[in-house]
Amino acid sequence: MASFSVDDHRFMAHALELARRGLYSTHPNPRVGCVIVANGEIVGEGYHVRASGPHAEIHALNAAGDRARGATAYVTLEPCSHHGKTPPCADALVTAGVGRVVAAMKDPNPLVAGEGLKRLQAAGIQTESGLMQDEAARINPGFIKRMTQGLPWVRIKLAMSLDGRTAMASGESQWITGEASRRDVQCLRARSEAILTGIGTVLADDPSMNLRLDAGELGIDEPVLQPLRVVLDSKLQMASKAKMLGLEGKTLVVTHTAKPDQKGALEQAGAEVMELPGEGHRVDLKTLMKEMAQREVNEIHVEAGSELCGALLAQNLVDELVIYMAGHIMGDAAKGLFRLPGLETMADRRPVRITDIRAVGEDWRITAYPVNQEND
């Protein structure tokens, strides 16, 4: 196993910071940062800004110029070895004459999967990998899961009162949390390729389900990418006048019972209607997730009611929970977070691993992971 120095860690940490700058703009590609170091000095750096654009290594090599020869390249993901929308970065590093490449992790893409490092080694370049691998993986959870499992990363966002309630018995829920939390949620939407909700939420609230922060507010120079809005509507009840259909971005309505007249009305209003198999009158959620992965969706942001959230959790399709807790009491008649029939004893509980609790305005944000999946 490679032994890394303090400077190795320092330069890779900087590359990881660069990678995070692409959090809102690279999808469906991974977020990647690269630093070129010669004689202990950074001579070039860059990050992957957007899909179809130059990769992080190319930006860094362009900045370094001739100083890249004999230098060390620190990259948060193994350099690609295949021709996609851009040429292989491994070839660019060879041409530039770098002497050493340190990758935080190997690329899970089957088209790369170690081949990039092998190509560098064949050219006589010293290669090492595994430096700060866990930190690098946390930047691209959706890309990694899609490449290794053929499924997207599913993140459920919930807002609750101190006593764990998400809406009054009448369905009224605006607003449980404060403005700071709602802005924070917009950042979660921005890093996701799709926002998923259920028809119950659409019928009750007629939500926009869009990203409402501009590029300046997100701290990026690239155009804002509107996530795909996905509505799970098994019986095709969605109205063609739904608010989201008149907004920028695309809406996908997923049904198990495609009524021709309603389907036509929704399509005329700008929606895409997709029929998927299911059991009874319910769309099969695992099939839906596979379809999302085929559409190059890395991360799905879920904002839905207790029934859909409960179904996703019960089927082990949830990777991450982000729960905003507000300082008020809504009472036992109000609605809970998850509908999970069959939980009758303490042994039936669904444990989660809480990894972070922090204040967001006057609320608290809790980040947790279902322990059965052990995602980090």
Kindly describe this structure.
The chain is an alpha/beta fold and 376 residues long. A 9-stranded mixed β-sheet has the order 10-9-8-7-13-6-14-16-15, sandwiched between helices. Helix content is 28%, strand content 22%. The protein is globular, with a radius of gyration of 23 Å. It has helices spanning 6-20, 56-64, 89-96, 115-122, 133-139, 141-149, 179-190, 199-205, 215-218, 260-268, 285-294, 306-314, and strands at 33-38, 41-47, 72-75, 100-103, 126-129, 153-160, 194-198, 228-232, 251-255, 272-275, 278-279, 282-283, 299-302, 320-325, 352-360, 363-370.
- The total strand number stands at 16
What is the string of SSEs from the N terminus onward?
HEEHEHEHEHHEHEHHEEHEEEHEHEEE
Largest sheet: 9 strands, mixed
The radius of gyration over CA amounts to 23 Å
- The proportion of residues in beta strands is 15-25%
Shape: globular
Could you name the ranges where pLDDT drops below 50 across 5 or more consecutive residues?
none
Helix content: 25-40%
> Order of strands side by side in the largest beta sheet?
10-9-8-7-13-6-14-16-15
Briefly note the structural class of the backbone: alpha/beta
Average predicted confidence as pLDDT: 91
Number of helices: 12
Terminal Cα separation, in Å? 23 Å
